Amino acid sequence: MTDRDGNIALAGEMAGTVDFGRGPLSTREFPVGIDTSSAFLSKYSPSGENLWTFLDVEHQGLGLGAAVDSQDNLLLCGSVYTDVQPEPFVLMLSPEGAVRWVRRLEGAAGFARSVATHGNRVVVVGTFDLTFTFAGAHR
Hints:
Layout lengths: L7 E8 L1 E3 L4 E3 L10 E8 L5 E6 L5 E8 L5 E8 L4 E8 L5 E6 L4 E10 L2 E9 L3 E2 L2 E2 L1
Antiparallel strand pairs: 1-4, 2-3, 4-5, 6-7, 7-8, 8-9, 10-11, 12-13
């Protein structure tokens, strides 16, 4: 995906240590020496220079979808692993890479696979199971 300035975003999951262009970033390591996977979103200039990379080292998870809104904010969706099940999430990052907000479908099981925006609305598509709360509303 690209923003209005032609910057390119790359999203996914990684494990271990990866250099996206601004120095190595590492995921957490379990005590037995196994790296966890973490969701990431990386932004590049039109010439390929890495502008910033967001890496969710607080959670083991997957980055499955991304979008850009009309203000060049970037959205990332996927799932984080809880003790019991994968829990879907969506988050928004500013054009500079700062986290603006995070929403998890607490109580749900499943995967947020794609995200889109229209105006101030965010639509997330995926597989969802069980009862969950999103933005204070019970679903």
